[in-house]
Amino acid sequence: MADIIPRNVATVPSVEIRQNPRAKRLTLRIDKHHAVPVLTVPKGISMGQIQSFLDKHKGWIADRVAALPEGIRLVPDAAFPFRGAPHIIRHEAGFPREPLACEGEVRLGGPVDHVEPRVLRWLRRCARTRLVERATYHAQSLGVSIGRISVRDTKSRWGSCTATGNLNFSWRLILAPDAILDYVAAHEVAHRVEMNHSPRFWAEVDRLCANRSAARQWLRRHGDGLMRIGPPPGGESAAD
Ligand SMILES: [Zn+2]
């Protein structure tokens, strides 16, 4: 199909504007979940200033949004990665309601409009099971204790560790290859030894995880794609 509209004009999406009295200056970022630009506006900025700022950056906005991977909804016949391997959602009335990963498919039955929330809940449970398993294993290897493990839809970090040893992870890690989930689990557990990113911290990670630089590179390259799978936050149904 011919593209007769210049790309910069055609692809500039509407910008979400957030007032923040504590902000020091106008800042622009891309919300990767929703694929929308977000402009943070400090006090005392006029509409004219906002407009000229956006005009100046419209090429950047268009390029960044166009570069985002396409969103994938978890609906029947959709293809998405599960533990790093492509899977197709196969919905048939006769299948059990509980999703089952089998031969490159995620099979489930039940009402068709329940498919996405049910697949999401199942993915979160799978993520939690594996993260608990791997974090417990790494904690035993380092001889450290860990607290509660939570699996959430984190926005900016794949995992985090509190001062008291509670670990938080993104459920989306279950979409990545096992070695990637394992690296993030090892990383957060290693913070139980060193609460920083010093050379001593990375030495602990290396004791747990054979190839952390490849894992970090994978996340940099594919992380945005994982953020675009399933309904954007806020669009998720109440089933969760
Ligand atoms: Zn860290």
From TrEMBL:
Q: Where is the signal peptide?
A: none
**Pfam families xrefs:** YgjP-like
Q: Where is the YgjP-like metallopeptidase domain?
A: 24-222
The superkingdom of the source organism is: Bacteria
What Gene3D superfamilies does the record tag this protein with?
Metalloproteases ('zincins'), catalytic domain
Q: Which InterPro entries match?
A: UTP_pyrophosphatase-like, YgjP-like_metallopeptidase
Residues annotated as transmembrane: none
Q: How is this protein named in the record?
A: YgjP-like metallopeptidase domain-containing protein
Upper lineage: Bacteria, Pseudomonadati, Pseudomonadota, Alphaproteobacteria, Iodidimonadales
